[in-house]
Structures are given as structure tokens and as C-alpha cells.
Amino acid sequence: MNGDLAITTLAERPELRASLWSMPHTWPAFMEHELVGGDATEWIAAEFPQHVLVATGPEGDLVARALSVPFALGAEGRRELPATGWDRTLRWALTDLRHGRTPDTVSAIDMTVATGAQRRGIAGRMVSALRDNARAGGFKELVAPARPSAKHLEPDTPMAAYAVRARREDGLPHDPWLRVHARAGGAVESVAPASRTVVGSLGQWRRWTGLPFDSEGPVTVPGALVPVLCSLRHEHAVYCEPNVWVRYRL
Prior knowledge:
- By secondary structure, the protein is an alpha+beta fold.
- The chain is 25% helix and 28% strand.
- Strands 1, 2, 3, 4, 5, 6, 7, 8 and 9 form a 9-stranded mixed β-sheet that branches.
């Protein structure tokens, strides 16, 4: 499929906008209820179509999407990549757009390969395309609050330890998704310990996961990178996801 893959921006292919959300994927259902990102993808598609990449296969069907946003990392009071990663970056991008602030950095926000098209090298091509698109837009940096793809297999391992785990013999990171970034020229910068947040009642979490949520404390949820904290007394549960900041010098 790689030879037949066509990668363009949504600005060039606006007719694919509706397909962005109907494309089959393997994201955990509870992640659709992230506090900040609930409507973020539609907003990004509307405001920054030139920063949304779409990949179509030989039949013209959408097989991958990659959303990113421009923001002013160098603005007063920022300068450092935030510990609240994904959430904070989206807020900065929205604030900068509202106030007409000139962006200096692009952040990847979502990179998804359709179910059935995975493990074909498409993810690596999309990451490289994001990098090239940012460079073509005149930006000097691309950053990404990466969600390591194998971390869910070790929910009790601190992300700080997981992200710097001894590299393989070929010098690439242990995690498959971090390896994709490394091959595209990205370098692990830091950990964003509170990058994304999902909060819900116990009833909501039961519907999202099919789990009973009937015990106090941490609950291991399939697809979650760390345990979800359950409070029976207060009848809610909170998931605070850590991500890994990857930086590309363009």
C-alpha cells in the first residue's frame, strides 16, 4: 500500500473532513471523553486544515489522519514544553488564534492509522509528513506529546522510567511508537506527567470500559497507560495520562 499512499492536507482535500471521524480506529473508548479534547478535533479541522494531513489508499479511502496545531511556545510565560502536555498545548493554540498571536512551533495532536491498515509503515510516513509540512510552513520546530503504544502493557511502570528504558542494540527506543518518532528524526525531550485527563462518574466508566469499578483505588483498564483512580466515596474516577514530549529541530 505504501507505494499507492497519497498524503495531502485537508485544505487540499476538504471533502475528506467527514471521513476523519468515521475512519475505524483502535483508540480506547474512554479516550473519546477527554476533558479538553472532546471537540478539539473538529475545531482543528475547521481552523487549521493546512495542519491536518490525510492519507488515502489506492481506492481513495481514508487510511490515516494526522492533526497538528501551530502555537507560540516562545510567548511570555511559556518557553518550556508543558507538564500538562496535550491539554495545555491545545489551550495555547486556541488562545493564540483568538488573540492573533504569531505561532512559532507546531505540535502534533492526533496521529491515527485506520484499523486494517496498521503495521504497514504508514505511521512512519505520516510522522515524516507532519515534520515536512511544518517545515514547509516556515516553522523551525515540531513537537509531539507522544502516547507510547506499548505502555498500556505496563500500567504500573512510571512513564519517566519507561521513556528512558535502555535502548535496543540498534540504538532505537524500546517502545514501538517512540521508535517511529526516532526514525523520523525526533528526540525524546521530557515527560508530560499530566498530559490528558478523563473524568467521569462510576456509571460512565462502567459503560465506557465494561468494568465494575467497585473497589477503592487504582483500577487497571485495558488501553490505559496508567491506572484509573476510583473513588467509591465520591462516586467518580479520574484518569490522568502521561505522555512523552518528542522534539524535532527543523
